[in-house]
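User: Here's a structure from my thesis project, written as structure tokens. My advisor, Dr. K., wants to see whether a designed sequence matches the one we expressed. Can you design one independently, without my sequence as a hint?
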């Protein structure tokens, strides 16, 4: 698992496992995600430990950044949302209803333009709760290149960490 290639905001990162260290959170250092492994952690448990730490790291990044990134899109669309919740659905990038955005943590692996697409798309559902012509027109007014972003996300999506 050490040396594994990961994505964060479309940028390629490498995982570096640091065995027999004092426990501390996963940290980004110059293109490396460094994960100290606790002393005495059996080699057969390192993969599960690393995966749990990675999921936590991605979720924290999503929780910290996505609400602020959604705000300008809400303003452009003329809508407001109450809160943004980071979720873990198997097959959706997000959903939005009753002012609550639910966004899949996996999206922070994608380039920022695709993150913005998901945020704007879900916020547009506060105007139109369907995918009809009016919905796409509303999204197109604030994001004229949404079709290209949507296509790129469809291509990249299966490669993101599950």
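Assistant: Designed independently from the structure alone:
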């Amino acid at each position: 698992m050490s040396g594994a290639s990961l994505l964060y905001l479309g940028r390629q990162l490498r995982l570096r496992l640091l065995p027999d260290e004092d426990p501390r959170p996963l940290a980004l250092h110059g293109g490396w995600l460094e994960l100290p492994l606790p002393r005495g952690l059996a080699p057969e448990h390192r993969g599960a430990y690393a995966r749990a730490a990675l999921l936590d790291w991605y979720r924290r990044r999503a929780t910290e950044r996505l609400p602020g990134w959604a705000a300008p899109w809400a303003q452009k669309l003329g809508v407001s949302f109450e809160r943004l919740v980071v979720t873990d659905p198997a097959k959706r990038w997000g959903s939005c209803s009753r002012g609550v955005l639910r966004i899949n943590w996996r999206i922070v692996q994608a380039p920022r333009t695709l993150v913005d697409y998901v945020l704007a798309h879900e916020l547009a559902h506060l105007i139109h709760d369907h995918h009809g012509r009016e919905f796409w027109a509303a999204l197109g007014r604030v994001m004229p290149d949404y079709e290209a972003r949507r296509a790129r996300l469809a291509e990249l999506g299966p490669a993101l960490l599950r």
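When you compare it with your expressed construct, this may help: The mean pLDDT is 92.
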